Amino acid sequence: MSMLKKSLTTVALAGALLGGTFVTPAAAADPNTCTKGNVCGWSGANRTGTRTVMSVTPGCYPFKTAKSVSNQTSYKIEFWKITPGTGCGVGTKLVTLQPGTYSDNPGTVTGIEVYAK
């Protein structure tokens, strides 16, 4: 085997091996999932559309408008349609999610309240 052919074979093999190193697992790349430790919202029902991902601790937060939500934190979270110009917990409570759960169509979420364990 010529030196050139050996070099090309080595480069091809190295490329194939390295290419597998950078592959992202399908679950991590799926825009319809929410990674552990986060709360997520999607602009569409049934976890479709643009996804928003937040890392939270107990407290109140405005939330980018979402029509489906997932709680993959260790906290209980209430999802609200907040009355404009008011604080947390004022408006319409849409759904309460325990850790590791989701809701595909709770209404239009604009704020969340995260409770300590």
UniProtKB/TrEMBL annotation:
Keywords from the named record: Signal
Pfam families: Inhibitor_I36 (PF03995)
Highest rank taxon of the organism: Bacteria
Range of residues in the leader sequence: 1-28
Protein name: Peptidase inhibitor family I36 protein
Organism of this sequence: Streptomyces chlorus
Upper taxonomic lineage: Bacteria, Bacillati, Actinomycetota, Actinomycetes, Kitasatosporales
